[in-house]
Design goal:
Elements lengths: L7 E7 L2 E6 H13 L7 H28 L3 E8 L2 E7 L4 H32 L1 H4 L1 H21 L7 H41 L2 H27 L6
Parallel strand pairs: 2-3
Antiparallel strand pairs: 1-2, 3-4
Length: about 240
Amino acid sequence: MTPTRQGSFRFFRFAGITVFVHWTWFAVAYYILSSRSAVYASLFWNVAEYCGLFFLVLLHEFGHSLACRQTGGSANQIILWPLGGVAFVAPPNRPGAVLWSIAAGPLVNVVLVPVFLLLGFAADAAGLAGSSPNLYSLLQTMSVVNFGLLIFNMLPIYPLDGGQILRALLWFRLGPIRSLQIATGVGFAGAGALAVLAFFKGSFWLGIMAAFMVMHCRAAWGYARVLAARQGMPPV
């Protein structure tokens, strides 16, 4: 369920990192923009909002990639798809390197919080709400979206950043295998809660996210069991 180079289009390359866009991104963009055509005064602003959302996602993913390189790891590819973005990072196999590579993504959103607050104050002072209501609404939306991305990504549900940060912190004390088992166990519980929320809210996208998390938790749990068996550790 994670996007790959297959079915993706090269977008641009920056700092040795190539950004690809999966074809499903365009299909979902068309659907969403068609259904939200009345939100702004013109289609242009709807497109600007949608692109702005993925610009924030892209900054987040570059945070992961550049931090991974600082640790001596490799990171040269980012793929955008309807559920967000995926930075393919391979930090050195030690907890500190993994922790920094993962935490740097949300830290980008943390830095952007005061930036958007200052932009909001400036927009109020300039009277944009009256002179340019579409631009004013766009700035407000981007501020909310950035904060929402930060909060959602920090949920301790593997493979979200929060779940991977939990795993990295546990790794310092419990080692790479047990930390992964615990993180994925918490991830299963979190994904189940998200699935229940999706059912009661009737949210298709939350349901897709829950399924995505379960798939990754299952893969990580299986990988941890294989590693444990190789080292003769008792099963959990």
